[in-house]
Amino acid sequence: MRETLRLYWMAFNTALQAKFEYRVDFLLGVVTSCMLQVAALAYIYVIFHQTPNLNGWSRDQVILLMGMTAAALGTSELFFNHIWMLPYYIVMGELDRLLTYPVNSLYFLLVTRPELHSFGNLVTGFTLISVELWKLNCPWYDWLVVPLLVLCGGIIYTAALVIAGALSFKFLGPTSMTLMIPHSLLQATRYPLSIYPWWLQYGLMLVIPYGVFHYLPASALLGKDFGPWLLPAAPLAAVLFIWEAQRVWRWGLNKYESTGS
Fold first, then answer.
1. Model-level pTM?
2. If exposure means fewest CB atoms within 10 Å of the residue's CB, which of 132, 155, 252, 259 is most exposed?
3. How large a percentage of the chain has pLDDT more than 70?
């Protein structure tokens, strides 16, 4: 196990160092991702210029949710971003090379293409989280819990991408719009789930459990509808969802027929 983890770390670190060789690309990526988050933040300010709250959630509380979403997105992009290349690899036969390695193909694929614009999302996300925790006068233990929740969010989001990406084994194409579904749903969770129809709320709690890593914990920490007993739901959902993603990945590999060349 130790040697396997060391191999994954070496592969990730090598890919990261190769990315850092392109300094202008790194700078542009960080600036662009920060600008996208600032644009989303400006939209929240526009909304709250028209209304004092969103179904009982104040502006600062919604910005806290947005910060957690941005940080979870950045976590996934930094450590597990390679899944976005899966449709291309299937069509071009590049996946064959990966399957010959003496490692878990899913984990090795995930960690070998870090995305540098993730630093923009991470910096923006944790900055917003820190500012809002301070403005909301949250106790010290909230500051300790939030990084764990963000990590769980990154894992849950990655698992959703794996499940969506595994459909590429069945429905071939150089790109997969299915990967945009979990991405778009994650962006939707910048806002309290309680503003959405009941079926979408349940979908974002049980089917793709984004709400478990920030909406439920934030509700508990901010003294809303849920109690602190729900805080362990985030790591439990992360473990169960990545297990489900592995099952879907194995299903996809069983459908894989290579390129035939």
1. 0.91
2. 259
3. 95
